[in-house]
Amino acid sequence: MTDFAKNDPLVVAGVNYSSRLLTGTGKFADLQQTRLATEAAGAQIVTVAIRRTNIGQNPGEPNLLDVLPPERFTILPNTAGCYTADDAVRTCRLARELLDGHKLVKLEVLGDQRTLYPDVVQTLAAAEKLVADGFDVMVYTSDDPILAKRLEEIGCVAVMPLAAPIGSGLGIQNRYNLIEIIENAKVPIIVDAGVGTASDASIAMELGCDGVLMNTAIAGAKDPVLMAHAMKLAVEAGRAAFRAGRIPRKRFASASSPVDGLIG
User: Fold this and answer.
1) I want to staple 213 with a disulfide (CB 3.0 to 4.6 A). Which of 22, 38, 90, 209 is the partner?
2) Short-list 55, 15, 114, 129, CA closest to 139
3) Mean pLDDT, to the nearest integer, of 232-259?
4) Residue 51 near residue 90 (C-beta atoms within 8 A)
């Protein structure tokens, strides 16, 4: 980790993280590959689908926490597979029990099985219930700036708009919506869904996003561990470029060297 990254932490629910790349734990070949890819990504926050992954609710079965122990990683339980606010709330409460009172959760309430777009009405309802119940809620949502602001006002600790449909690999399809969300936010904005390769992650960070969450782009690659490493570098490069400030775009050339004082 570079000094630039160490001195520029991502702050979620009052906790500092030196990595701005969050990774999922599904779709890998096995738990060993999950561990290797997570380490190659340098991720400190890892999402876990409570309805699909064993973190202790199924005794005798392989446990994700054996390869990604909570003392090394912040486990982010998510509500993947939930289609109603009530299901999402129940899933978060189960996660809190399994993880000894853990409050940080990723809320997603889906509205359609084909596109996996969020049901924003159910998402708002679930967010209100979870925040009132004491959870620190990171919320997956559409790229609607008005909705993103409303979720922040409810009390969500991070807003996570999609860049394209989940698992599509289409890249950043909505950069102007994302910029509008970022410019009006007082909580971290983390792109969630749509990233396909390293350049997509870098673009998200160059736009000013505070982080990127991905799973399929890494787990679905021919070499997931190498892709995880590439994503780590891309997120760091994109963040550094954002902080450095790019030059303005122009329609004409601009000499790299001064012309004053040339010989002859």
Assistant:
1) 22
2) 129
3) 87
4) no
Catalytic residue among 106, 129, 149, 222: 106
Rounded CA gap, 53 and 78, in Å? 10
Respond yes or no: is residue 103 known to be catalytic. Answer: no
Tell me which H or E stretch contains 227: helix 224-244
Please list, in sequence order, all residues whose beta carbon lies within 8 angstroms of the beta carbon of residue 20, skipping any fewer than 6 positions away.
5, 10, 205, 210, 211, 212, 235, 236, 239
81 labelled ligand-binding: no
Q: CA 86, 91, 92, 96: dihedral to nearest 10 degrees?
A: 140
Residue given tokens 């009132």 in the structure block: 132
Q: Rounded to the nearest 10 degrees, what angle do helices 31-41 and 224-244 cross at?
A: 20
CB 16 within 8 A of CB 205: no
| pTM for the structure as a whole | 0.91
Residue 227 has pLDDT above 60, yes or no: yes
Does 193 belong to an annotated binding site?
yes
**Residue 194 annotated as binding?**
yes
The total of other beta-carbon atoms located within 10 Å of residue 97's CB is 12
Summarised one tens digit per residue, pLDDT across range 91-128 is 999 999 988 889 999 999 999 888 889 999 999 999 99
The C-alpha atoms of residue 253 and residue 256 are separated, in whole angstroms, by 9
Extended beta strands in 79-202, E state:
104-107, 136-141, 158-161, 190-192
Say if residue 7 carries a ligand binding annotation: no
**Is it the case that residue 158 has pLDDT exceeding 60?**
yes
Strand partners, 255: none
